[in-house]
Amino acid sequence: MSSVDGTIHRATADADHAGWRLDRFLAAVLADFSRARLQQLLGEGAVKLGSATIKDANHRVKPGETYAVLVPTALPAQPQGQDIPLSVIYEDKDLIVIDKPAGLVVHPAAGNPDGTLVHALIAHCGDSLIGIGGEARPGIVHRLDKDTSGLLVAAKTERAMASLAKQFANHTIERAYNAVVWGAPRAAEGLIEGQIGRSPFDRKRMAVLRGGGKTARTRYRTLEKFGDPTRPFAALIECRLETGRTHQIRVHLTHLGHPLIGDPAYGRARQPPRPKSPAEETAFTIAGNFPRQALHAFVLGFQHPSLHKTMRFTSPWPADFAELVGALRALG
Predict the structure, then answer these.
(1) Cα 31 vs. chain centroid, distance in angstroms?
(2) CATH node for 88-169
């Protein structure tokens, strides 16, 4: 095995590793790589024991064996980078934290083949992307919906990707959102629990299901109520995720009976009473015409993969969100 086209990493088993699956052993010893990435390398024939190529992830390890893993040089990213402005909150050799604007799609898909955050990160990070999964591309470990604004972290190395993915899987990432909803929950704070999966009535939407789906938990607390105290027109809420399911906050708040203002998929605008003042007319108009779901990821905290310290970032409200809250506050 030559290192001309990549880097060789060696892992020697001791007595404690006897009988371990090869992929589990390599993931334990080579901490810079996720188990999934090592399984990929095994399948590509990149792991050798002496002169023998080992492709079986279930191969059992014996003490004293030394395995050589050839990690190829990262290929140019697919897709290619695009020069899209980014609001970078923090960046180092391991990761980058972005304040994502509403309207920016995170990852390429059939409906959004280009112009995404991934394209922007590839262009911005350039040669500092050491490679994720064999390509010089950023590691996306969580996403924000297209029209949700706020903080998002992406990995620049295999090591950072593995660490952040593990933190998300263990639910140790701090994530807090501000949301503006129609009406106001009866309880000032609480825990919303419900299995989330594809809606049986609309496959493009998610829903809280009686059976099936995945466990989802969202903690919320009401920060402000707007309008008539006996029947608030809207409310500002803080949500903290204990799990991370697709559209979780949007689905849970709808299930609670208070969907996000502006949500095209889950929101339902209530008919406001006839405005009694210019302030009411302005507030009702802005809320009724708000062009996206009123959701902003304002806190993101995690353990840095290399510095081994807690990093915590906050993001101010974008202009449209601040304008919406300001108009609602005028209701009293």
Answers:
(1) 22
(2) 3.30.2350.10
- pLDDT, one tens digit per residue, over 5-46 is 568 999 999 999 999 999 999 988 987 788 888 998 999 899
- Would you call 230 exposed, middle or buried from its count of C-beta atoms within 10 A (0-12, 13-18, 19+)? exposed
Give yes or no: 16 in active site. no
Q: Which amino acid is at 293?
A: Q
Euclidean distance between CA atoms 160 and 302, whole angstroms: 11
Rounded to 5 degrees, what are φ and ψ at 134?
95, -5
Q: What is the pLDDT of residues 233-275, one digit of tens each?
A: 999 999 999 988 989 999 999 999 999 999 988 887 666 667 7
**Separation of alpha carbons 149 and 158, rounded Å:** 26
Among the listed residues 145, 228, 263, 320, the single catalytic one is: 145
Residue pair 79/129 in contact (Cβ under 8 Å)? The answer is no
CATH class of segment(s) 6-72: alpha beta
Domain boundaries, the chain: 6-72, 88-169, 174-329
Low-confidence stretches of the chain (pLDDT beneath 50)? 1-4
Cα dihedral 158/151/241/191 (nearest 10): 170
Distance CA 250, CA 296 (A): 12
> Does 174-329 carry CATH code 3.30.2350.10?
yes
Q: Token pair 């699956």 is at which residue? A: 21
The pTM score is: 0.76
Confidence at residue 135, expressed as pLDDT on a 0 to 100 scale: 57
What is the β-pairing status of strands 195-198 and 206-209? antiparallel
Task: Tell the residue number behind the tokens 């052993």, with chain if given.
Answer: 25
Q: Residues 6 or more apart from 245 whose CB is under 8 A from it? A: 196, 206, 214, 216, 251
